[in-house]
C-alpha cells in the first residue's frame, strides 16, 4: 500500500492531458511500442474523431524508482465543462492530481474549476507547465499565474512538453515523492467505491472501483450496499491497457469486478461494494448527485422501438452517470424519454452514443432548462418540458435558473463579450485582472441564455481567446412565456419552447422563418404559425410541391422508381410525421440556431 499512488490529470480542454498520459504510459513501459498510439486512452471512436476526452480513463502502471517498485494508478479526465461530473468522480478515487497548464494559453476557466474540485477533496496538486516547446510559450508569465492561483512555490512547477517528452521523468518522480500513499485499513472490513461501470454484452456489467479498506479475492461473495444485492466476484482484476485478472485487490488500489450482472438497474455508480464475510458497517459517502442543466425528450424514430430504446438508455446510463431520464409521452411523437443533460455537448454525445453503440435512431426535441412555476392554486411545479407549462391564466409566477459564469479572456475582447452577456440578460458582478492583458469577468446569467449557443458565440467574438465556466446559483423570478408552433393549425408540442417575454416576438418570427427553410415541401401547402396562448404572433408558408417526383418516371424505368422510393425512405430516417406534415430532426433543433 505504501507503494501505491493514485492520481488524475486535470486541466482545461486541449492543454495536453491525454498526450501527457501517453508519455507516462510510455515511460513506464505499460504498453509495447507496437500498441502505442496518440491519445491512447481516448479509446472511444467518438473521442478519437472529435479529439476530445469524454470519459475518464483509468490505467495502472508499474514504475521502478530509486530501487523500489511502485504501482501508479492514473486517471485521465475530460476538460469540457459538460463532463465535469466525470472529473469529480475520478478525483474521489485519487490522492493527487497533475494540474496541467498550457504555457502558451495560460490559466483558463476549467483550469480553475477543476483545481477547486481537486482541492475540495484535499488532493495534493502537482502543477505542470506543458507545451514549453511551443514558440508562443510564456513560461515566466504563466508560472506567475500558477503561483498566484494555487499559492505554490515557483520551484514546485514542473516544466514539460508532453509532445516532445520533456519533463516526464520529473513528473513521475514528483508523483512518487509528493503524492501521499493511500490510507485505509488493509485488514479492515471490505469497502470498495464504484466510480464507473461499463456494459459488456458478453460478460455482463463491469464495475470499476477503488478499495478504501480491506481486500477482495476472486470468488468472494460480495454485496452492493445501496441495492442490497449479493453476487460472487467471478473475476476481479486491474485496468492495464486491457483488463488483467488478479486473485486479490488490496486497500488503496483501483480494480474492476465482473459478476455476471445483466440488468443495468442493479448497478449504481457511487455505491459501495462490501464482502459478505467482512461486512462493512456503512457505505462510503458516494458522490454528490448530478445537477442536470438541460432537458430534452428523446424519442425513437420508429415508435415500435420504445422498449429497445429503454434498454439502450439503461445501458448507456451505466457508463454515463450524469445522464438521467424518465419516460414521457408527446402528442406529436408518442412514447419516449425526458432526459436531463449537463449541457448541449453532453446531449449531443448521448444521442451519438445511442446511435453508434446501441444502433438506435432517435429524435431529440427542443431542449429546455427547468423552471419553477407557481400556479394560481399555489401549487409548485417543476417544468422542463413546454408541454407541462400550465395555461397563462393559471400561472401565478415563474422562476428561472441562474448561474454564476466566469469568463477569462484578453482585454481587447472585453467590450464585445460584455455586449454579448448583456444581450443574454447577464449582470456583470466583478472583473479581475489576472495579468496586464488577461481578465476574468464574472456574470450572473439566466441558464437558459447560456446553455444553447452562448459558448459558440463567445468563441467567435473572441477568436477563440475566451474560456467559460459556470456554476448553478439558484432561481430568480423571470417573465417567461410558452411559445407554441402550429403546422396547418395543429399544435406540435415537441416544437414548443419557453422563452423570455421580451424575446418572444423576435423568437417566434425567426423560428417560423427557420422552419420554412427546414420543412420539406409536400403535396400541399403548410402554414407555420407561432402563438402565445391564443395570440398568433408570426406566420410563414411552405408552398406545395408542383409535381409528384414519381410522376416523372411513370411507365418504363421501374428500377429508377424503386431507387427514388428508397431514397425517400432513407431521407425519412430522422423524420416524424405529425398530422399530415413531415418534420425532420433539424426542425426540433432550429431554436438553437436562431441567431
Ligand atoms: P487534452 O484535451 O487536455 O486531453 O489535450 P490533448 O492531449 O488531446 O492535446 C491537445 C492538443 O495539444 C493535441 O493536438 C496535442 O498534440 C497538443 N499537445 C499536447 N501536449 C503538447 C506539447 O507539449 N506541445 C505541443 N506543441 N503540443 C502539445
Ligand atoms: Mg483529453
From TrEMBL:
Its EC number is 3.6.5.n1. InterPro entries: EF-4 (IPR006297), EFG_III/V (IPR035647), EFG_V-like (IPR000640), EFTu-like_2 (IPR004161), LepA_C_sf (IPR038363), LepA_CTD (IPR013842), LepA_IV (IPR035654), P-loop_NTPase (IPR027417). Coiled coil: none annotated. It is an enzyme of class 3 (hydrolase). Residues 2-183 form the Tr-type G domain. Transmembrane segments: none annotated. It is a peripheral membrane protein. GO terms for cellular component: plasma membrane. GTP binds at residues 14-19, 130-133. One of its GO terms (biological process) is positive regulation of translation. It is found in: Cell membrane. It holds the Pfam family LepA_C. CDD domains: EF4_II, EF4_III, LepA, lepA_C. It catalyses: GTP + H2O = GDP + phosphate + H(+). Keywords: Cell membrane, Elongation factor, GTP-binding, Hydrolase, Membrane, Nucleotide-binding, Protein biosynthesis. Belongs to the GTP-binding elongation factor family. LepA subfamily. Belongs to the TRAFAC class translation factor GTPase superfamily. Classic translation factor GTPase family. LepA subfamily. NCBIfam families: lepA, small_GTP. Required for accurate and efficient protein synthesis under certain stress conditions. May act as a fidelity factor of the translation reaction, by catalyzing a one-codon backward translocation of tRNAs on improperly translocated ribosomes. Back-translocation proceeds from a post-translocation (POST) complex to a pre-translocation (PRE) complex, thus giving elongation factor G a second chance to translocate the tRNAs correctly. Binds to ribosomes in a GTP-dependent manner. This is Elongation factor 4.
Amino acid at each position: 500500500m505504501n507503494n501505491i499512488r493514485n492520481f488524475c490529470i486535470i486541466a482545461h480542454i486541449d492543454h495536453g492531458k491525454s498526450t501527457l498520459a501517453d508519455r507516462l504510459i510510455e515511460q513506464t513501459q505499460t504498453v509495447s511500442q507496437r500498441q502505442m498510439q496518440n491519445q491512447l486512452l481516448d479509446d472511444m471512436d467518438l473521442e478519437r474523431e472529435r479529439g476530445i476526452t469524454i470519459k475518464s480513463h483509468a490505467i495502472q502502471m508499474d514504475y521502478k524508482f530509486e530501487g523500489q517498485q511502485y504501482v501508479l494508478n492514473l486517471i485521465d479526465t475530460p476538460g469540457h465543462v459538460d463532463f465535469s461530473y466525470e472529473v469529480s468522480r475520478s478525483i474521489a478515487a485519487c490522492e493527487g492530481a497533475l494540474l496541467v497548464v498550457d504555457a502558451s494559453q495560460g490559466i483558463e476557466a476549467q483550469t480553475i474549476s477543476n483545481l477547486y474540485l481537486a482541492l475540495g477533496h484535499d488532493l495534493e496538486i502537482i502543477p505542470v507547465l506543458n507545451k514549453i516547446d511551443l514558440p508562443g510559450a510564456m513560461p515566466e508569465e504563466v508560472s506567475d499565474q500558477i503561483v498566484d492561483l494555487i499559492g505554490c512555490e515557483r520551484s514546485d512547477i514542473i516544466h514539460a512538453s508532453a509532445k516532445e517528452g520533456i519533463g516526464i521523468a520529473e513528473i513521475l518522480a514528483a508523483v512518487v515523492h509528493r503524492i501521499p500513499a493511500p490510507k485505509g485499513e488493509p485488514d479492515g472490513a471490505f469497502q470498495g467505491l464504484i466510480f464507473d461501470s461499463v456494459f459488456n454484452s458478453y460478460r455482463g456489467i463491469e464495475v470499476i472501483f477503488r478499495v478504501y479498506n480491506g481486500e477482495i479475492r476472486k470468488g468472494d461473495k460480495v454485496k452492493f450496499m445501496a441495492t442490497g444485492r449479493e453476487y460472487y466476484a467471478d473475476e476481479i482484476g486491474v485496468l492495464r491497457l486491457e483488463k488483467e485478472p488478479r486473485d486479490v485487490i488490496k486497500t488503496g488500489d483501483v480494480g474492476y469486478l465482473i459478476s455476471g450482472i445483466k440488468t443495468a438497474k442493479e448497478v449504481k455508480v457511487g455505491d459501495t461494494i462490501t464482502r459478505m464475510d467482512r461486512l462493512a458497517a456503512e457505505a462510503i459517502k458516494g458522490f454528490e448527485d448530478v445537477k442536470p442543466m438541460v432537458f430534452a425528450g428523446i424519442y425513437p424514430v420508429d415508435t415500435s422501438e420504445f422498449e429497445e430504446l429503454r434498454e439502450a438508455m439503461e445501458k448507456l446510463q451505466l457508463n454515463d452517470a450524469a445522464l438521467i431520464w424518465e419516460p414521457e409521452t408527446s402528442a406529436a411523437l408518442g412514447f419516449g424519454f425526458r432526459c436531463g443533460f449537463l449541457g448541449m455537448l453532453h446531449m449531443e454525445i448521448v444521442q451519438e452514443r445511442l446511435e453508434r453503440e446501441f444502433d438506435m435512431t432517435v429524435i431529440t426535441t427542443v431542449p429546455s432548462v427547468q423552471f419553477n412555476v407557481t400556479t394560481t392554486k399555489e401549487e409548485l411545479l417543476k417544468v422542463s418540458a413546454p408541454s407541462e407549462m400550465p395555461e397563462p391564466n393559471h400561472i401565478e409566477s415563474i422562476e428561472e435558473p441562474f448561474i454564476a459564469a466566469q469568463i477569462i479572456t484578453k482585454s481587447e475582447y472585453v467590450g464585445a463579450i460584455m455586449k454579448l452577456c448583456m444581450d443574454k440578460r447577464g449582470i456583470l458582478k466583478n472583473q479581475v485582472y489576472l495579468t496586464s492583458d488577461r481578465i476574468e469577468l464574472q456574470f450572473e446569467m439566466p441558464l437558459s441564455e447560456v446553455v444553447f449557443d452562448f459558448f459558440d458565440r463567445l468563441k467567435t467574438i473572441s477568436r477563440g481567446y475566451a474560456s467559460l465556466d459556470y456554476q448553478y446559483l439558484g432561481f430568480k423570478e423571470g417573465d417567461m412565456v410558452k411559445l407554441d408552433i402550429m403546422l396547418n393549425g395543429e399544435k406540435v408540442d415537441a416544437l414548443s419552447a419557453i422563452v423570455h417575454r421580451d424575446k418572444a416576438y423576435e423568437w417566434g418570427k425567426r423560428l417560423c422563418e427557420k422552419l420554412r427553410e427546414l420543412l420539406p415541401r409536400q403535396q400541399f401547402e403548410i402554414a407555420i404559425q407561432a402563438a402565445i396562448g391564443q395570440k398568433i404572433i408570426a406566420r410563414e408558408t411552405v408552398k406545395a410541391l408542383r409535381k409528384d417526383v414519381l410522376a416523372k418516371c411513370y411507365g418504363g424505368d421501374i428500377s429508377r422508381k424503386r431507387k427514388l422510393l428508397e431514397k425517400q425512405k432513407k431521407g425519412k430516417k430522422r423524420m416524424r410525421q405529425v398530422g399530415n406534415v413531415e418534420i425532420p430532426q433539424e426542425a426540433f433543433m432550429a431554436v438553437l440556431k436562431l441567431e
